[in-house]
Design a protein that fits this description.
Layout: H1 3-8, H2 20-23, E1 30-33, E2 36-39, H3 40-45, H4 50-57, E3 85-92, H5 98-109, E4 114-120, E5 125-131, H6 137-148, E6 152-155, E7 160-165, E8 181-188, E9 191-196, H7 203-214, E10 219-220, H8 231-255, H9 263-280, H10 284-293, H11 300-323, H12 334-360, E11 371-376, E12 384-389, E13 398-401, E14 411-415, E15 418-421, H13 423-426, E16 431-434, E17 439-440, E18 445-446, E19 451-455, H14 463-473, H15 480-514, H16 519-536, H17 540-559, E20 562-564, H18 569-572, E21 578-581, H19 583-587, E22 588-599, H20 604-615, H21 621-632, E23 641-646, E24 650-655, E25 658-663, H22 665-668, H23 674-680, E26 685-691, E27 694-705, H24 709-718, E28 722-726, H25 731-740, E29 748-749, H26 754-767, E30 772-776, H27 782-787, E31 790-794, E32 807-809, H28 815-850, H29 860-863, H30 866-876
Helix pairs in contact: 8-9, 8-12, 9-11, 9-12, 10-11, 11-12, 11-16, 12-30, 14-17, 15-16, 15-17, 16-28, 17-28, 17-30, 20-21, 28-30
């Protein structure tokens, strides 16, 4: 048994009952006793002897690395015997430049117990499977931190996070956690992060449980603003300030009209430069050495360490020579090394800060309110509300939203009626009336009367989070341009090292053979050129050119009600030359009206009840319209069992042992019925009902064309883009819409099944070499959305998270298609600028630093500005897209 397990195990023969609480906390842990796998809980309940448990602990699968001693369940697991894999996602703190990503990737790939690694760029997040039989989750997290040298935290799908402050006498790692707690992590001495499943336990219940267990109150830690500067950026800023403060006296002593290099001044400069080297540049050494010897990579940290070390050591050598009365003609002194480090740190700080502001500024997550008014329906003095932190909300809570206030989370309106402004999330102007039973989305603003809603989703997992997650997810899938950029960036750093060595060799030969200098003097004159080359180049701009544009474009799109779900769509959509629309719910409004209603049976009431039973649970526009029409006529639904929806066809079921179906005439085989034909000739959408093989009802529906459809199609045509309609509806209804929108009937397809839509889109793409955009609204469009070069799903803002499309329009406005095309074009030019600037900068800077421009030379101390000059334009220039007025023309 491992020593840590022996320390915590009870004495031989002691019943487990007294120590079961210390060992058996996770329902997912397994113990092998007498060659039989049993859960830890079962072992404890049987009160086996400690010797049995001791033997079992040798095979115990837990998450903490100490038998079952630590907290934490395995969350969402996939355990198969003792060879289980658990899916884990972790987010790394710090920058996400290509070198950082490559180091993290290599470090994780070298860990034998991790599999199926997937990385995203901004923020840097890794998802992988862990062999929990080989290492605990807590042990894995520590191994990842050690291996990568970066701080990280675990995240989970659907998890809620609560950061709390405990009493100094309490360690939350030790008490038994209540059911529903997934993970507890110590952030600081008395600050803990609790991750829990809100379906099992609420935040307020969680705090009460810990307080009851420990006997001390547990308070929430101060909320961290979403746009707050991260700790690593703040640390870089502090080190930059320290370096600047220490460098300033050195520069004064070197550049002021004082006697040159008096020993007292030199000693002062030596001390200050040494402090800078240790305090400011010191943290870079472990990172550089880890990358070189563990990750087997050469990164910018190594180049910085080499350059700063060379300049510092030469400065010390110059000081020693001067102190003994000789002179070292290196051309570098303490002001060189100090200024070099200060400018490098300044460049890194400005670049990291700019990236942070681009990523966090105007993000959808910033719309999340920090407080809510909890309603107490059982209060003695009537219904009262009290303000509380949104982090303490629980599922099922009733909260009051006052006029002018923002909905803190998603919910269902229980009491009252008011108008809400959802434009901040959907980009669509206008107020929406909400009455009892309506859904209220997080981030919308109440504009009239106070209402009470019941919480259905918590902050962190609500509509704001859904949109923000989808916006951030764009950076996980890389377009081809990003893959090329990453590959180039990985070769830039080694190439810089080779160029620096080549520069050193060339200038040494120039000094030796052309200037006839001694070897020592020639080397000293060549070193500054090599140092400048090492420092001035920067591959970060190459790697950031695409992700920064992705982040900016995704936020712009989200603010206009367009969610980009694929990074490739930003480079593909600009080439679209054929747009194919679904009809029902896409070019037409979802709200339809029943124009014709025919019953073939004498029992109209029975057929109406049958029809309502089949259609009431469907979300398809045709079925839902008929259901509402019948409900308005006070029809009561019949009892139908075995309901099944067949995409693109209809709905089937069984009533009194007989098959009943509702759907299109072709599927039901009644398209030649005179009654059906009479409805079709009117250009109406037809829905038929059959009992067995008998036609019992026919409904004719008409939908109005969207108000923005005609304008959109006109603008697409003006751009030279071909427009088509592809629908599962009857020909008459499709042709009527095409005629009103001035779309040639030769570019319309009707009576299409989902498979036929997919095949037709595929043929358009291949036969005509077209970049096809397909826009649809329903599940029957999923295959076509996936097949098209660009798939756009138009929805009312509900249920879009699982869409298979490349982009989702959440405000039902077709103008989102124009936004997508324009944004894609602008993104292409921004990415092109980023690559061009990076290439131009690195080429020119290396020529300048290497002394190829004979009359212009870049001293080593100023080469530290390289990262700032290289990265800032790539980060800042794309911000101009935020001020461009999209959809205004």
């Amino acid at each position: 048994m491992p020593p840590q397990d022996r320390e915590n195990a009870p004495e031989q023969g002691e019943p487990v009952e007294s120590s079961a609480q210390n060992y058996c906390r996770s329902k997912f842990c397994c113990i092998t006793v007498d060659d039989t796998q049993q859960s830890c809980k079962d072992v404890a309940m049987k009160k086996l002897s400690a010797s049995d448990v001791g033997q079992g602990l040798l095979h115990c699968t837990d998450v903490a690395g100490k038998g079952c001693h630590h907290i934490n369940s395995l969350g969402q697991t996939d355990i198969e015997g003792l060879s289980g894999l658990q899916n884990v996602s972790i987010i790394f703190k710090g920058s996400s430049c290509p070198g950082c990503i490559r180091k993290v990737s290599r470090a994780l790939e070298s860990m034998p117990f991790l599999h199926n690694l997937r990385l995203r760029t901004i923020p840097l997040q890794a998802t992988f499977d862990v062999e929990i039989t080989k290492i605990s989750i807590r042990g894995m997290m520590e191994a990842v931190r050690t291996k990568t040298g970066r701080q990280c935290e675990r995240v989970g799908e659907g998890w809620q996070k609560l950061v709390v402050l405990s009493n100094p006498a309490v360690d939350l790692i030790n008490p038994i956690p209540p059911a529903g707690v997934m993970d507890i992590e110590r952030l600081r001495k008395h600050t803990f992060c609790i991750r829990y499943d809100a379906r099992e336990i609420g935040a307020r219940e969680l705090l009460k449980a810990f307080q009851a267990e420990t006997g001390f109150p547990i308070d929430l830690a101060p909320a961290e603003a979403y746009d707050e500067i991260p700790g690593d950026v703040r640390r870089t800023g502090c080190l930059t300030c320290v370096s600047s403060i220490l460098t300033l006296p050195i520069l004064i002593l070197a550049w002021a009209p004082f006697p040159k290099h008096m020993l007292q001044y030199d000693v002062t400069s030596l001390v200050l430069a040494t402090l800078i080297q240790i305090v400011v540049a010191g943290p870079l050494y472990p990172k550089a050495l880890r990358s070189l010897f563990i990750d087997k990579t050469i990164d910018m940290d190594l180049l910085v360490v080499l350059s700063t070390s060379i300049t510092y050591l030469l400065s010390v050598a110059s000081f020693i020579c001067e102190a003994v009365g000789s002179q070292l003609t290196s051309g570098m002194y303490f002001e060189t090394s100090a200024l070099l480090i200060s400018l490098i740190m300044l460049g890194r700080f400005l670049a990291d800060f700019a990236c942070h502001r681009v990523i966090r500024s105007r993000s959808v997550r910033s719309l999340q309110p920090q407080s809510a008014f909890l309603v107490d329906m059982l209060a003695a003095n009537g219904n009262t509300s009290k303000q509380l932190d949104v982090r303490l909300l629980q599922l099922g809570d009733m909260i009051e939203i006052k006029p002018g206030h923002v909905a803190p989370t998603d919910g269902v309106l229980l009491f009252g009626e008011s108008k809400f402004d959802e434009s901040i999330l959907t980009g669509e102007d206008g107020l929406i009336l909400k009455s009892e039973g309506c859904a209220v989305i997080a981030g919308s603003t109440n504009k009239s009367a106070a209402v009470v809603i019941r919480v259905s989703r918590l902050p962190g997992t609500n509509s704001i989070s859904d949109i923000a997650d989808m916006v951030e997810e764009v950076s996980q899938s890389k377009p081809r341009s990003q893959l090329i950029a990453d590959e180039i960036a990985c070769w830039v750093v080694p190439a810089i090292g080779i160029l620096a060595v080549s520069t050193l060799l060339v200038w040494f030969l120039v000094g030796k053979l052309v200037r006839n200098e001694p070897a020592g003097s020639a080397i000293l004159h060549a070193v500054p050129y090599a140092v400048s080359v090492l420092v001035v180049s920067c591959p970060c701009a190459i790697g950031l050119a695409v992700p920064i544009v992705q982040v900016v474009a995704s936020n712009i799109a989200a603010n206009h009600g367009l969610i980009l779900k694929s990074s490739e769509v930003m480079t593909t959509a600009r080439n679209v030359d054929h747009v194919v629309f679904d009809k029902t719910g896409t070019l037409t409004n979802k709200e339809m009206s029943v124009i014709d209603e025919h019953y073939c049976s004498k029992s109209k009431i029975f057929v109406a009840a049958l029809t309502l039973a089949l259609t009431s649970s469907s979300e398809h526009p045709v079925s839902s319209t008929v259901a509402k029409h019948l409900q308005c006529g006070s029809v009561k639904a019949a009892h139908v069992t075995n309901l099944a929806t067949i995409a693109g066809k209809g709905i089937g079921g069984v009533m009194n042992g007989q098959t009943v179906r509702v759907g299109n005439a072709r599927w039901l085989g009644v398209e030649h019925s005179p009654l059906v034909q009479s409805v079709l000739h009117k250009g109406l959408t037809t829905m038929c009902v059959v009992q067995g093989d008998e036609l019992v009802a026919v409904f004719g529906l008409r939908s109005s064309i969207r108000s923005d459809a005609a304008e959109l199609i006109l603008k697409l045509k003006q751009r030279g883009i071909r427009v088509s309609i592809m629908s599962g509806d009857e020909s008459g209804a499709v042709h009527r819409v095409a005629t009103e929108l001035q779309i040639p009937l030769t570019d319309t397809w009707s009576k299409c099944t989902p498979q036929e839509k997919q095949q037709q889109v595929k043929e358009l793409m291949h036969s005509q070499a077209k970049t096809v955009l397909f826009c649809g609204d329903g599940a029957n469009d999923a295959a076509a959305l996936t097949q098209a070069s660009v798939g756009v799903h138009i929805t009312d803002g509900v249920g879009f998270a699982d869409s298979t499309a490349d982009a989702v329009i959440t405000n039902t406005s077709l103008k989102g298609i124009l936004l997508l095309l324009d944004l894609s074009r602008d993104c292409y030019f921004q990415i092109l600028f980023g690559f061009s600037w990076s290439a131009f900068y690195n080429l020119f800077a290396i020529m300048l630093a290497a002394g190829l421009l004979i009359k212009i030379r870049l001293p080593p101390e100023y080469a530290g500005l390289g990262e700032m000059v290289s990265v800032l334009p790539v980060v800042i220039v794309p911000l101009r897209l935020r001020w461009k007025k999209y959809l205004k023309s």
